[in-house]
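chain below, 331 aa
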Amino acid sequence: MISKQNKKPHPGRKFCVAPMLDWTDRHCRYFHRLISQHAFLYTEMVTTGALIHGDHHRFLQFSAAERPVAFQLGGSNPRELAICAKMIEDYGYDEVNLNVGCPSDRVQNGRFGACLMAEPELVAECVAAMAQAVSIPVTVKSRIGIDERDSYEELVHFVSTVADAGCETFIIHARKAWLSGLSPKQNRDVPPLRYDVAYQIKQDFPQLEIILNGGITTLDQAEAVLAHVDGVMVGREAYHNPYLLAEVDRRFYGESKEPRSREMIMDLLIPYIQQQLELNDGVRLNNISRHILGLFHGEPGARGWRRHLSENACKPGADIKVILEALPTRI
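prediction:
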């Protein structure tokens, strides 16, 4: 067992926004941070190969305003993961998270994601290598099992093996992954969720921080789950209905301030959008506007907001005027 290097759990993990490929980019995270100042944010997954052999700055750049924020890595080579973890720490991220839960064919072909649940000793090597390279926490996001290897005993073996390597925080998507026969989209809904399995892991490993992911769509539901585990992670609902995050700070972090209104959030986001468009680094309006389509979900004018942005933000030369024209109520 390696030393823990004083990597204390971050208090922000009580409520997390899930890493979502092609969704939780830096623009999305900046927007989410304007709604909740305390929720723990995660990047979309990036592979070690992309960081080592590609334009690492493009993947790693982020605004300090997004913190606390974790970077999710995909990979299975301990040496490469250690190199990337150090890069992530040097950029100022608060955590490095290893993806052991994605079931896509592309991920399996690269020998990372959910298929690694079949190799707990290799995951432990990866965690140990990363933990020795950095002082920020190294965490793991997994499923409760894969294919026919879904017994509770196998999950216990996985958790205990990886924990002994230095991982103190497990984010558990409480659904097993089928590695063939289902698309990643189908695998988000099938097989059924098993919250009881994650709850039992917390009971059997009380010293570990256990965060439950999967199927949480309301703050009432999140609060009920928190009676059994240390944190919750919300994915699609936080993306499609982002104003869900507005009550997170008061409800889960003891914040006394009133949450920002939707209009206040846009008032703060517009200068950011303007700045990004003026940087001339390839950012187009729809790169940012796609993340805010759901801001007025359930409010008068929401349909017109979505339609105007969807039809106009993608046009060549689209600028901040498109946003201002779309607002259901003028700022």
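The domain at 11-253 is CATH 3.20.20.70 (TIM Barrel). The chain has 15 helices and nine strands.
thats it, cya
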